[in-house]
Amino acid sequence: MICQDVVHAASNARVKLPKHVSLGITIKHLTRSKQLITLLNRMGHCCSYEQTEIVETALADETIARSELNGGVIIPSNISPGVFGHMAADNNHFNEETIDGKNTTHVTTFVAFQRKQHAPATPPMEIYVDHSERKRSLDSSRPIVTVEDINIGGRRPAVTNYVNKITNASWLQPNDNFLSACQDDLVWLILRMCSNTMFEENYQTVDAQKIPGWSGFQSLRFSDPSTPTSIGYLPMIQADANEYSTINTVMKLSLKMANALGQSESVVTFDLAIYVKAKQLQMRYPGEFKNVVVRLGGFHIALNYLSLLGKMYSNSGLEDLLIESGVYAPGTTTGLVAGKSYNRGVRAHKLCFEALFRLMWKTFASWLEESSQGLDEISKTKALELLNQCKDSDNKEEYLKENWHLLKDGLSALVRLFKEFENEGKVKLHLFAFWSEYMSMVSFLLQFIKAERTGNLHLSSTAKMLPYF
């Protein structure tokens, strides 16, 4: 930094250095203040406002010229051909809270995502435009992306053509890895209620809780940093994202970008409101958009699942449980059960999930004593030793990383017996089956959230949730 300031001062600002150019552009984007940039320039910290506009115009001209080689689509410099990437589009509003409703802006933001590649440095980019003439603005004011109108009218497409078409998909079949992930949550539940009297019918948890909640426990288990993602920002589309013409333009641009990146199919993620219209477009024009994979964002999938979970278990006493226990206020409970609040809704179902498990465990403890296949005292002592070692460890992150499989294998017999008890209870009692189904639904939701965070078992968890929609 100091060396660049010295060169800048010695050359009387004739040499354009990275620090001064980037700082000027950054200040312009953050504040839009010509006066602030001028003050910093006079103190020798950045280039002048005029030079900042010249650099921005040159970059824009170069980007537009390079896009003509890719079929008119602009590919960000940090997005590499030959590496899988997917796109996402959403609405973006500016000044939407003005008093009179004027001077508001409603545009569509289009973004590309790609796993960051650790490869040799790319060669210098070619220059496609003559920059000898210094310009402070583009020659044309036309939008870089032209919104294409489309007719969505006509007869409604038949959706029955898609019924029973994916029965043999691999992600619909039983998945041992997914079952193992569900058992991981069962081990977490057992750890949370670990005490020396846990195998007695009237056990009491008197110790302070040393095992974190579900989210904290997953953070300890999956502490390794994920692969960084390159985020490329595409030109904003000057139209409302909820319009059919805008969605049509986004899907066509995604196809062009996929072709430029060497992909046979384009994957685009939308929120629920846009996703519904995008699927209508895709079914209305199946030939044109056959290579577009339209995805609903994970947040909206989970939010809708919370809504249906609340509808299925409305008037079951679930709301009364949350209100009378003092966990949530009545108005808040009504909203979260209806799927209006994501964070509170997930937390509420996790609390109910754990509370019901503890009630179920009391019956399981007495079932173990009566069952001929119950655990002997040696097995109980071994299980308690493993649980207490994890609970009392000073560094749980290191312990779980080194001993998770040992802990899970040591509790496998206990987990197997609990599943037998659960299956037997479903057959004998309808009320038991009713709440056991609720616990399974919450477990699928947690697996979906885990899949979104870890990038694994996404299709399997979604397949488990699909029958409930």
Work out the count of structural domains. 3
SSE succession: HHHHEEHHEHEHEHHHHHHHHH
Rg over CA atoms, rounded to whole Å, is 29 Å
Shape: globular
What would you call the quaternary organization?
single chain
Could you give a short account of the major beta sheet?
5 strands, mixed
Q: What structural category characterises the helix and strand content?
A: alpha/beta
Uncertain spans:
none
Average pLDDT: 84
Strand content range: 5-15%
Q: How many strand units? A: 5
Structural description of this entry:
This protein has 3 domains: 70 residues, no CATH class; 110 residues, Nucleotidyltransferase, domain 5; 225 residues, no CATH class. It is globular, with a radius of gyration of 29 Å. The protein is of the alpha/beta class. Strand 4, helix 8 and strand 5 form a beta-alpha-beta unit. A 5-stranded mixed β-sheet has the order 3-2-1-4-5. It is built from 17 helices and 5 strands.
Task: State the gist of this model.
The protein is α/β, with parallel strands linked by helices and 469 residues long.
Salient structural properties:
469 residues, 5 strands, globular, single chain, 3 domains, 53% helix, Nucleotidyltransferase, domain 5, alpha/beta
What order do the helices and strands come in, and which of them pair?
Elements: H1 2-10, H2 18-31, H3 34-42, H4 49-67, E1 85-94, E2 105-115, H5 176-192, H6 214-221, E3 229-233, H7 244-261, E4 266-270, H8 272-284, E5 292-296, H9 298-312, H10 318-324, H11 330-337, H12 342-370, H13 377-392, H14 396-410, H15 412-428, H16 430-454, H17 458-465
Parallel strand pairs: 1-4, 4-5
Antiparallel strand pairs: 1-2, 2-3
Helix pairs in contact: 2-3, 2-4, 7-8, 9-16, 12-16, 13-14, 15-16, 16-17
